[in-house]
């Protein structure tokens, strides 16, 4: 059976050339991209690569693979970033943050010249919102925010880590997932969320990717490119 995530993740490495600064995404699909970058460095196919990880998890993986790493502040720009998504439309909007890495992913993405999303065909949707929208909030006053979301009918839930503790992001924040089912106006919602005090960022990535690689169950890869 084809491993769609592996196929599409490894394929994204074709966009990387020697000498590039590479954004390393987070999640079970980006895992294979990072793995492939490590493999190509080891085999000598790629040289002089610098990686910028989007999470501690990816940083650990990259270190184990011997991928040289730099911080965002040490470089001017990232040449190519490959990252997964939880939902994507074919007009380049999506939801990210299912793994809780949305804030660092968004910062890295905003500093990347070319963004490639790597997804299985099950992630491609006509409209956003079936996947719960993650909102990263600072801990202080987060219960108040939660109640505001609840009053607004946005069906919030605090992201858990295990049974009793709340999930904490790499920046020390909580995540509130909004179960919206169908986001009618993503731009408006993104604007409103960004304007709420205590919200650090949200998982709406509107107009982000330049290329979406969609892995099909039959092993083929569909390419959506601007
Ligand atoms: O926070 C996690 C990231 O946004 C991931 O890229 C996203 O959740 C997709 O992950 P996966 O490839 O594991 O479905």
Automatic annotation (TrEMBL):
Lineage top rank: taxon: Bacteria
Pathway: Carbohydrate degradation; pentose phosphate pathway; D-ribose 5-phosphate from D-ribulose 5-phosphate (non-oxidative stage): step 1/1
Binding site for substrate: 26-29, 83-86, 96-99, 123
CDD domains (alphabetical): RPI_A
Transmembrane feature ranges: none
Key words of the record: Isomerase
InterPro entries: NagB/RpiA_transferase-like, Ribose-5P_isomerase, Ribose5P_isomerase_typA_subgr, Ribose5P_isomerase_type_A
MF terms in GO: ribose-5-phosphate isomerase activity
Keyword Isomerase on entry: yes
A single BP term in Gene Ontology: pentose-phosphate shunt, non-oxidative branch
Name of the top EC class for this enzyme: isomerase
4Fe-4S as UniProt keyword: no
Reaction(s) catalysed by this chain's protein: aldehydo-D-ribose 5-phosphate = D-ribulose 5-phosphate
Residues of the active site: 105 (proton acceptor)
EC code: 5.3.1.6
Self-association and partners: Homodimer.
Family recorded in the similarity comment: Belongs to the ribose 5-phosphate isomerase family.
Protein function: Catalyzes the reversible conversion of ribose-5-phosphate to ribulose 5-phosphate.
Protein name: Ribose-5-phosphate isomerase A
Gene name of the encoded protein: rpiA
């Amino acid at each position: 059976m084809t491993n769609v995530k592996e196929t599409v993740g490894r394929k994204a490495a074709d966009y990387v050339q020697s000498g590039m600064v590479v954004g390393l995404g987070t999640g079970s699909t980006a895992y294979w991209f990072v793995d492939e970058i490590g493999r190509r460095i080891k085999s000598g196919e790629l040289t002089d690569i610098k990686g910028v990880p989007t999470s501690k998890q990816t940083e650990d993986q990259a270190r184990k693979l011997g991928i040289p790493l730099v911080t965002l502040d040490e470089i001017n720009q990232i040449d190519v970033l490959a990252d997964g998504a939880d939902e994507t439309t074919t007009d380049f909007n999506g939801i990210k943050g299912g793994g809780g890495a949305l804030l660092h992913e968004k910062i890295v993405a905003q500093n990347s010249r070319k963004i490639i999303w790597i997804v299985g065909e099950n992630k491609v949707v006509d409209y956003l919102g079936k996947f719960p929208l993650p909102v990263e909030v600072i801990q202080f006053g987060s219960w108040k925010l939660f109640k505001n979301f609840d009053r607004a009918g946005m069906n919030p839930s605090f992201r858990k880590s295990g049974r009793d503790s709340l999930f904490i992001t790499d920046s020390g924040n909580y995540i509130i997932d909004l179960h919206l089912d169908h986001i009618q106006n993503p731009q408006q919602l993104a604007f409103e969320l960004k304007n709420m005090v205590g919200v650090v960022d949200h998982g709406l990535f509107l107009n982000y990717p330049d290329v979406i690689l969609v892995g099909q169950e039959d092993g083929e890869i569909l390419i959506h490119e601007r």
